Amino acid sequence: xxxxxxxxxxxxxxxxxxxxxxxxxxxxxxxxxxxxxxxxxxxxxxxxxxxxxxxxxxxxxxxxxxxxxxxxxxxxxxxxxxxxxxxxxxxxxxxxxxxxxxxxxxxxxxxxxxxxxxxxxxxxxxxxxxxxxxxxxxxxxxxxxxxxxxxxxxxxxxxxxxxxxxxxxxxxxxxxxxxxxxxxxxxxxxxxxxxxxxxxxxxxxxxxxxxxxxxxxxxxxxxxxxxxxxxxxxxxxxxxxxxxxxxxxxxxxxxxxxxxxxxxxxxxxxxxxxxxxxxxxxxxxxxxxxxxxxxxxxxxxxxxxxxxxxxxxxxxxxxxxxxxxxxxxxxxxxxxxxxxxxxxxxxxxxxxxxxxxxxxxxxxxxxxxxxxxxxxxxxxxx
Length: 382
Fold this sequence. Notes:
Layout: E1 2-4, E2 12-13, E3 17-19, E4 25-27, E5 35-36, E6 40-42, E7 47-50, E8 53-56, E9 61-62, E10 65-69, E11 83-87, H1 102-105, H2 110-113, E12 115-116, H3 119-128, E13 133-136, H4 145-156, E14 161-166, H5 172-180, E15 184-188, H6 194-201, H7 205-218, E16 222-229, H8 237-251, E17 257-261, H9 276-288, E18 294-297, H10 302-305, E19 307-308, E20 315-320, E21 323-327, E22 358-360, H11 363-377
Helix pairs in contact: 3-4, 3-11, 8-9
């Protein structure tokens, strides 16, 4: 599936594509494998054919920046309580009818949406705002891989971590480079049936499961999973039983699993909000099936939003709607009662960012970076 673009295609050269015998070029970023004639864009809209190559048209441009709590990604066991600088671009390689960031992921007016955002300026903004990490979110970073990798390198040079929020719909040829640049990832496991993925996302479940296995068993990236429960679509007890059993059997019991509540949006405004009891029931099923760290989201419920020691049951991290309360972890991540280690990446003490969200304008940091570079390049003549 492709889209014809009558304008001149501008962008930076992509790294994942190959020429076909029939003259088209195949994009190899995701399992969709868009086959493009010159001037055509892939379904994601941001990867396009220009002459004899595929280019990324959104490199260096963003749909906006905001400092969020890391718990909003959601990541519960990765530097809890710390601020993360979040940004995205435009476009998406899935067609989810329930998309809750559709104004960004489905945008086709990129020139009006985008602020200039070179990698060094993003890293500088994170450093100067005391963010411990940068999150590639709002739309799927898989489709702007080359840009994300360059931003990640600039961040790591400043000791800033990198976080991806993704649907995990990426080909094996591209995923090694992408996940090597990340320190943590939350993957949207949208459902546990091929029917759901095909009818509501135009995608395939099997490819996402393969990505989850890869992240868990072949990388050092911290992994958490989120499933948005939609009434009548993926919220049956049988499906949640199957999903949670698969996570424990294939990925292990230590992968945090978030169940979040749906609200009507985009092309699914006919559905009702997910009742809190449905989300809590999913949490209970996950616990029963051996998931050590299940969580609920988009509802205010401290019991199911908190972290517990899987050995003695002590509440280790109290959490309610991105706000931390109790902290009962030793400096090395153990339970203060029994010493059992809690899986995750923790500081000796939690951050204190809380629930705040703070919009950020990148221009000031771009100017400051340019001024500093000019000074560094000055030569004194004697």
